[in-house]
Amino acid sequence: MIGMTIENILEIQDSIFMIRGVEKSSHSYIIKGNRGNILIDSGMDSNFHYLQSELLKLGLKVRDIDIVINTHEHFDHIGANRYFQDNAIIAAHRFAANKMSLNDRYVTLYESGDLNILPLHVHLWLESKSRFDIGNYILDIIHTPGHTSGSICIYEPVKKFLFTGDTVFTGGVLSYIAESGSVGDYINSLMSLNTRQILEIYPGHGDISKKPDDDLKMAIENAKEFLNKKDIVRVTYINNE
Q: pTM (2 decimals)?
C-alpha cells in the first residue's frame, strides 16, 4: 500500500521505497522493477550496514540490486557503492563518474570509516536524456549542474515524479554549491526543471515535496538572492532527522 511505513522505510509509489538516511547520509530509494531492481544513491560508507538491514526488510539482499544510480558525486551519496559494484551496474553522469573513478577527494568530499579503502567503479557514464526502462517505470536522466557539475535528477514521465538528489529540497531550501558547482548553473537547472509537470519531488535529504512548483520557484528566488549577497556564506547539509 502506498504510504505504508516500515520503521525507516516509506513506500512512496507502488514498488518504490524511500529508506531514510541517518546522520549526514543521504536517503536511498529502492525501485522494484519488472526488469530489475534499482537503488538510487547508496549513502555513506558508514551507513551501509543500516542500508543492508533495511533492504532485508524489503526482501532484498545486496546481490539483488541490479543498478545503482548516483545523483551526484558527493561522499554521502556514493560511499556504500563499493558493496554493490561487484554485482550491480554503477551509473552516474559522466562529470560525476570522472571524479568518482579518479578518486577526486577534493570534489567528492569523501570521508570513509572503512579502513580497507577500495576504488569506486562507475560502469555506466550517463548523459542527459539517458533512459532506464524497467517495465513498470521509465526513468529519464536530466543533467542538472549547479550543486555539483555532475548532478542529475531522475524523472518518471508517466507518473511525473522526480528524484532530485541535492538539487531541490522541500521548502526551496538553497542547496550547498560545492567545489565543482555554480550558482548560475544551479538557477538554470532549476528553471529548466520548472518547465516540467512534476507532481512530487523525492530529495536526497529532508522531507518529500508535495508542492514541487512552489518549492522550485522558492529555490530559484533563494538562489538569485544568494547571488546578490555581498557576503556569501555557503549552505551546508540538510539534517535527515
A: 0.92
**Each residue's pLDDT tens digit, 21-47:** 998 899 999 999 999 999 999 999 988
Give the number of residues written for the chain: 241
To the nearest whole number, what is the mean pLDDT of the chain? 91
Q: Show the cell assigned to 48.
A: 551501509
DSSP state of 189: H
Quick check: is 167 in a domain? yes
Split into its structural domains, the chain has a count of 1
Q: Which ranges of the chain would DSSP assign to H, the alpha helix?
A: 48-57, 75-78, 94-101, 105-108, 183-193, 212-228
Q: Is 191 contained in some domain?
A: yes
Q: Which residue has the higher pLDDT, 110 or 181?
A: 181
Distance separating alpha carbons of residues 64 and 62, to the nearest angstrom: 5
5 grid coordinates: 511505513
CATH of the domain at 82: 3.60.15.10
Residue range(s) defining the domain that contains residue 162 = 5-228
